[in-house]
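Field reference: "sequence" (input) and "structure" (output). Example, N-acetyl-D-glucosamine kinase:
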Amino acid sequence: MYATETAARETLEQIMADALSKSGSNRSAVRAVCLAVSGVNHATDEQRILNWLRYIFPSHVQLYVQNDAVAALASGTMGKLYGCVLIAGTGTIAYGFTEDGREARAAGAGPTLGDWGSGYGIAAQALTAVIREHDGRGPQTTLTSSILQALGLSSPDELIGYSFETVS
């Protein structure tokens, strides 16, 4: 297991322990756990998180892991998995189920492979336009002054290596 996976599992375990403690309960009292997690896209993702949960909870606890879009759809349809949900935030995904249980999805592949229309995707396109203007590969854009001002920078060169994690 990678260090980041270990940290994620330990964080999940701590959050669940805190929630149970605050509610005056304990792990043995839990009957089922359902986690709807961004990035659960394949059976291997689901199995990894199920393994984490199995490590945390006793064997009698029923465990369910889904993509977060499934929970969003269920919450908007009173628990009936029929219809379509579109999420456009940091990432983006469209996910839907037919009445007979068939499912389909688009996007939701992460920032590298496909989060078109997401906050990340839009920001990446804007920053690319600024850099392309600056190095002569693209047309002039009004985004340059707006982005530089918002970030407190004086030149597009300063975008290279900039730590965007500090931007809020």
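Residues 119-166 form one domain.
Strands lie at 32-37, 62-67, 83-88, 92-97, 103-107.
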